[in-house]
Amino acid sequence: MRHAPQETLGNLEAVLRDGGLEVEVVDCFSKNWPAIERAGFEPHQLAGFVVMGGPMNVDQTDRYPFLATEVEWLRQAVAAGVPTLGICLGAQLLAKALGARVFPNRVKEVGWYDLEFLPTALEDPLLAGSRGTETVFQWHGDTFDLPPGAVHLARSAACEQQAFRHGASAYGLQFHLEMTAEMVADWLVDPDLCGELKNLDEINPHEIRRRAPAELAKMAPLAQRIFGRFAAMCRERAKPK
User: Fold this and answer.
1) Where are the domains of the chain?
2) In the CATH hierarchy, which top-level class contains the domain 11-238?
3) Tens place of pLDDT for every residue, the chain, 241 residues?
4) Which of 24, 53, 158, 174 is most enclosed, with most CB atoms within 10 A?
């Protein structure tokens, strides 16, 4: 599920396709959305469900009515045991679907930030093998409470809820492992995303861009490992029973 043209799957799409999975991209912003919504959601037909980021917040359902539909689809996917991955806005929508509060974070995280993986991540099916601290790409102003029954997996200095797992295979990641150099460059000039940065003195777009090649290279093994394991979960579900 994509919420804006510039919020692509990035390197996640290649990992899923290389893993032998067929990827259907649904653009919520498409003029075809009403027809997609009427067709309904059939989680039993899915190997996995991925919800990407976006510039809106989860409560803007008057302007973006597809958000309410996505929350319901996420509930259905989790109930059906479909491997589910929510990234940034997708993580916030997943948290809301699971009964958690979503609200503004005390600061905006935009750029490269250190992420702390908690002891619970050491044996997690997706996150095991990660270093205690990793540098990842962030672009968010909202956060959420840990959903009831979920396992807290990661935090940052500025945002407590960075990753969680609910059940065996539903994950919310507040950070962006899917980034490519092209996506970083595009986001930094997109008016829907970066217009507000002019009022955030602590955020330096030039520094974000300068650091991108080195930081993306360092982040690549983490992204490959997590996305690769998620793809494996999807393949397992897709096996004939």
Assistant:
1) 11-238
2) alpha beta
3) 999 998 999 999 999 999 999 999 999 999 989 999 998 899 999 999 999 999 999 999 999 999 999 999 999 999 999 999 999 999 999 999 999 999 999 999 999 999 999 999 999 999 999 989 999 999 999 999 999 999 999 999 999 999 999 999 999 999 999 999 999 999 988 766 655 555 565 678 889 999 999 999 999 999 999 999 999 999 999 988 7
4) 174
Contact 108, 65 (CB under 8 A): no
Residues 6+ apart with CB under 8 A from 93: 51, 58, 67, 70, 71, 74, 86
Residue 112 main-chain phi, psi, to 5 deg = -100, 125
Per annotation, catalytic residue among 28, 176, 194, 234: 176
Dihedral sign, Cα of residue 27, residue 217, residue 16, residue 41 = negative
Lookup: tokens for 64: 């973006």
C-beta of residue 151 within 8 angstroms of C-beta of residue 120: yes
Q: How far apart are the first and last CA of the chain?
A: 27
Residue 88 annotated in active site: yes
| Annotation says 194 is catalytic | no
Catalytic residue among 3, 178, 215, 234: 178
Paired sense of beta strands 102-117 and 151-155, if any: antiparallel
Residue type, 85: L
Q: Is 152 considered catalytic here?
A: no
